[in-house]
Specification:
Helix content is about 5%, strand content about 40%. The chain is mainly β and about 675 residues long. Strands 1, 2, 5, 6, 8, 13, 14, 15 and 17 form a nine-stranded antiparallel sheet that branches. The radius of gyration is 26 Å and the shape is globular.
């Protein structure tokens, strides 16, 4: 008899009003850890959409005659991809339970029901009422809804319906008002999982109740304790974090836009911190208002512009800022290459004084031909750069060229004297951060601009057969078991995660909602080759996927958080990589290739908004840098390392970006190529 309560809620604990959500939900959550304020109870809302901004929450708490209801308020669905608002609770260890809820659809223009045996919000079984005539049992996974069975059932908006699901092994029974309407077996039920309420039309829910048998309850509790012990033992086997720096950022702090370099020409690292103002339309034309250079002790080396604690300036920029730290002239000191007030500037890293400057290119193309321009009109006469990349288009001994871009349409190649080499206007969205790589081994960089590969002079070589959305991040490398060939691994929003070759062919693809971030490293050293970590964001966000080098999924896991960075972290110094999720002390940290948090952040009051992994102390292992607008902490390993001979090749620091696909390879051979990009497509 299932008389043991696993969970219940009548929402009496919730105040009348909005269920907590991010009212300014933006791309900032792709690489900032953003937490809504308010009472969430034991519920989690992992579903959001940029189109929700300014239109209120998905869920509100309402009341009638002292009864509280959790009401789903969205009517928009299917844009930019399939979305089902869902509140979830419980954990993936729950199994063999009954779950029931009372609900009233105050609109029958969509579906509403119970999510159960939920691995994540985009991988779940659902029992629902569909419009006015159907009851349905389905499996939602990624972009697909697989109907397992459905029955005719008439319903309306005036009645309350008590719907119930009973899971027993692989058997699922579905009830409406105590009447059995479905009874079927599915292997998907065997896994168990979280539960939730879900609707894509206005619906009121109350009296959620989850119960199980006493023996099952004790088994669930036992397995949860064993899992905690296993995880604690695993974490004890790795070096813990040790705080080595705690810096006060005074009034010059920023979002995830800081840059690292060697401004003083020595082995020590310095940090450049830009602040930016938003203008015209959100983040479309961010303007750097202040640059501050500091050392690792927080001492200010120089500062340009006026710092501010105004939230409009400090606000999370959901784009890159035009700022890189690199020795562009080869004098042994890093310069700061930036854009300010429609000038490209090369600043002396030691003083911040301008060494060279030039006006940004004129925006002289017809507005009708531009992509991604707010209000269908470019705001300024000159280009307002939103990103800078250091490249080698001229085939010199070291990279000495500069690529700038507007938001989503045009790229411009400049030499180290800021002369224009060429420009390219794309008929497809350029994405956030084109990737420069020498595909054919001739010493000149080609560049993948969104879906299109250009040669070193800006001529089109080929384009992937994708027209929609844009590429957020790209990794190039010999990461497949075919070590003689290079490949691009891309995450491209609604167009999913895909692997393509250097000749324009797509070899594998997975539609995971909105594919957002990617990294490639040796996350599972017991397996041959490398693994690919990917996460999604818009819609059903916060699901982490791990793939093998051919793009076959190994596992998927939802940590119920945003801001998952996925940067490879050389924490052990032995060739095994972890990846950085975020800096939350409870659920964040370094995740291993099995989906376990292997290294946790200490609960010491550190900032959690932003994080980064970089080797700052010189033992080849990475440090972890976490910060917000006011302070910055640096963590290293608590133990010394005996052998520091392992130095993985990682993404170059001088091309920092919030939209960089990251990698960790044993040596340069994995990113050294000699292929003909013009070969006939397969």
């Amino acid at each position: 008899m299932r008389n043991i309560c696993l969970f219940s809620d009548d929402f009496r604990k919730f105040p009348i009003g909005e269920f907590p959500y991010d009212p300014d939900h933006s791309a900032a959550g792709e690489y900032h850890y953003v937490t809504p304020k308010g009472v969430c109870g034991e519920w989690k809302d992992q579903v959001c959409n940029y189109r929700y901004n300014g239109h209120g929450p998905s869920w509100i708490v309402t009341e009638e005659n002292g009864k509280h209801y959790m009401e789903q308020s969205r009517i928009e669905k299917g844009i930019p991809h399939r979305i089902f608002p869902t509140l979830q609770t419980g954990n993936t260890g729950w199994k063999d339970y009954d779950v029931s809820v009372s609900m009233r659809r105050i609109s029958t223009s969509g579906m509403a029901g119970i999510a159960f045996c939920m691995n994540n919000s985009i991988d779940t079984l659902v029992f629902s009422l569909e419009e006015k005539k159907t009851a349905r049992l389905a499996w939602r996974h990624k972009e697909e809804v697989h109907i397992l069975t459905e029955k005719k059932f008439m319903s309306d908006s005036d009645q309350w319906y008590k719907i119930k699901v009973s899971v027993d092994g692989k058997n699922v029974k579905c009830f409406i008002n105590s009447t059995l309407v479905m009874d079927m077996d599915t292997e998907l039920a065997m896994r168990g999982g979280k539960i939730g309420i879900t609707a894509d039309c206005p619906t009121q829910f109350t009296d959620i109740y989850v119960s199980t048998e006493d023996s099952t309850f004790r088994e669930i509790q036992y397995l949860e304790k064993q899992e905690k012990k296993r995880l604690k033992k695993l974490q004890a086997s790795y070096p813990h974090m040790k705080l080595v720096r705690k810096l006060d950022l005074q009034n010059f702090g920023t979002s995830r836009q800081i840059r690292f370099g060697h401004l003083l020409g020595n082995d020590e690292w310095q940090i450049v911190i830009p602040q930016a103002q938003k203008r015209v339309d959100r983040d479309a034309y961010a303007h750097i208002s202040c640059l501050t250079a500091i050392d690792l002790n927080g001492n200010i080396l120089w500062q340009i512009g006026e710092p501010s604690e105004n939230s409009n300036i400090l606000g999370k920029i959901s784009a890159d800022l035009p700022c890189q730290v690199y020795d562009i002239d080869g004098d042994g000191y890093d310069e700061v290459i930036t854009a300010k007030n429609f000038q490209i500037q090369i600043l002396d890293g030691r003083t911040g004084k301008i060494k060279k400057s030039a006006a940004t290119p004129v925006s002289d193309e017809d507005n009708e031909t531009l992509i991604g321009v707010p209000y269908n009109q470019y705001a300024f006469d000159r280009i307002n750069p939103d990103g800078i990349r250091i490249c080698n288009f001229r085939g010199l001994e070291r990279p000495s060229d500069i690529l700038i871009k507007d938001r989503y349409c045009r790229v411009y190649a400049l030499d180290s004297n800021l002369n224009l080499l060429w420009k390219y206007q794309s008929p497809k969205n350029t994405g956030h951060y084109p990737l420069a790589v020498d595909v054919n081994g001739d010493g000149h960089d080609e560049i993948l601009v969104g879906y299109t590969l250009l040669d070193c002079q800006g001529n089109v070589l080929w384009t992937y057969p994708i027209e929609l959305d844009h590429t957020d991040e790209i990794v190039a490398g010999k990461f497949k078991n075919d070590i003689d060939k290079g490949y691009f691994a891309c995450v491209s929003g609604t167009q999913g995660f895909f692997i393509g070759d250097f000749q324009g062919n797509i070899l594998s693809r997975d539609y995971i909602g909105h594919a957002q971030r990617i990294s490639i490293a040796n996350y599972l050293p017991e397996r041959k080759g490398f693994e690919i970590a990917v996460t999604n964001f818009w819609g059903h966000q916060g699901v982490i996927y791990l793939y093998d080098s051919d793009g076959n999924e190994l596992w998927e896991k939802e940590n119920e958080m945003n801001g998952n960075i996925l940067a490879p972290v050389n924490w052990l110094g032995n060739g095994t990589d972890f990846f950085l999720t975020n800096a939350d002390a409870e659920k964040g940290g370094l995740m291993d290739g099995h989906g376990d948090i292997a290294v946790v952040f200490p609960d010491d009051g550190h900032p959690v908004m932003c994080c980064e992994a970089i080797d700052l102390l010189g033992d080849s292992r990475d440090e972890l840098v976490v910060w917000d607008y006011h302070s910055l902490y640096i963590y290293t390993q608590e133990n010394e390392i005996e052998d520091s001979s392992y130095h993985p090749v990682k993404y170059p620091v001088y091309n920092a970006s919030n939209y960089r696909g990251e990698y960790s390879f044993p040596d340069m051979s994995y990113i050294t190529f000699n292929e003909n990009p013009k070969e006939t497509k397969e």
